[in-house]
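Troubleshooting: if your tokenizer reports a length mismatch, compare your output against this known-good record of 480 residues.
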Amino acid sequence: MSSSRPRRRGLRTALAFALMTVLGAVAAATPFQSASAALPGARTVVSLTFDDANANQMTGASILDRYGLDGTFYVPSGFVGSAGYLTLANLTTLKAAGHEIGGHTLSHADLTAVPAAEVKRQVCNDRAWLAGNGFSVRSFAYPFASLNAAAKTIVKDCGYNSARGLGDLRSPSSCTGCPSAETLPPLDAYETRAPDQVETSWTLKNLQDIVTRAETRGGWTQITFHNVCASGCDISVTPTVLDQFASWLKARTLVRNTVVQTVGDAVGGTVKPVVTAPVPGPIGPGVNGVVNPGFETLDADGTPSCWMQGGYGTNAANLALTSAARTGARAGRVAVTGYVDGDAKWLPRFDLGGCSPTVAPGHTYSLRSWYTSTAVTQYAVYARNAQGAWFYWTSSPWFAPASTFTQATWTTPPVPAGTTGLSFGLNVFSNGTLVTDDYAIYDTVGAPAVSSAAVTASTPAQAPALSRKVEPQSSSGLQD
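Known-good structure output:
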């Protein structure tokens, strides 16, 4: 037993001597030769990226700051300042600490699901807003990692130097036959390859393996985080695991030819001029601002063009198309069971003007649609601000149940200053079924007369007996 102790001490002594030798070589590197460059092995670049501008990413930034590591934060600028998201002051703090601010569209749009003009508005005007607030924007990440050739061209034309996809490099449980690292320069700068996004189930070893596999041959790997929180978040890493990984990664840069760089620095290139895309003007007199008002035109996936499903709260909602239409071949149907709270509705798609109509502040608008319903219904109205963000604005009073198609009409209050667009839809906020068709929104100046069968909702001041359900400001109107 006693004879084994000297051997263990001797082993520790040998390891300590080897470590001091390596660290001595690091310390001896001249000012013109980095420590990592002085060590053998292919060079590996690691970029730590954060998508979606979630407010808890400031925790992630503080961890990176602790170890002197810089990250890239991909920001959908329309979300900045909204509840649960980074503020402009946060972004300025990130920039001052050496982190990179990149683009992620104005409203996290799927660039393969919208027309080219909308793609250009989403990509170019996101970058323009960030640049206008003092950020040098070189790098872009595709929302949902969804891209095609047209989107890649627009990203390039909007002035970005690179754009990231996801899932094209080997990941803990997928793409096992894929390469372990991207090349530098990238194989395609506007579709740079990266492992899958970091999932809640990933361990510290999963993160370390991404780096160590890249180190076998060298190259570039981008690690993509979303939420940084201890529990209760989707697509997340805990602060503990991120801290352990950052500590390990920092130490690794001292003894291997591995460096941590922002995406912009890894790809390189100058900051290109800002490019903007035009936004459609406000609805003209007598013009219906609803695109595809009767749900007749379908996208390739069978969903109605320029429409989306909305809702919030605790209920079982089923939204579909039905042939029981007032005109044409189809209408929108909303059925709710198991109601506790919230609502469900069809809405013109939230975007920057391709589907949602542009409006003028101070103007009032006539909202119209035909419906049948087994329950009371009302218009839920959403507004888009100049930054491109959407928020709940107001609701109309209730419309009574109707067994035959009846036109519901309501005139909005004056549109608030800073509002650039509206979206609206009749909703179901109890157990019941609604069929709705033939939507319209008109500027009240020049609006055509309503049908003689129309049911007009009055404002609460005109009809105090009418109720109105007000949606919480934190709701986006989108179903989970």
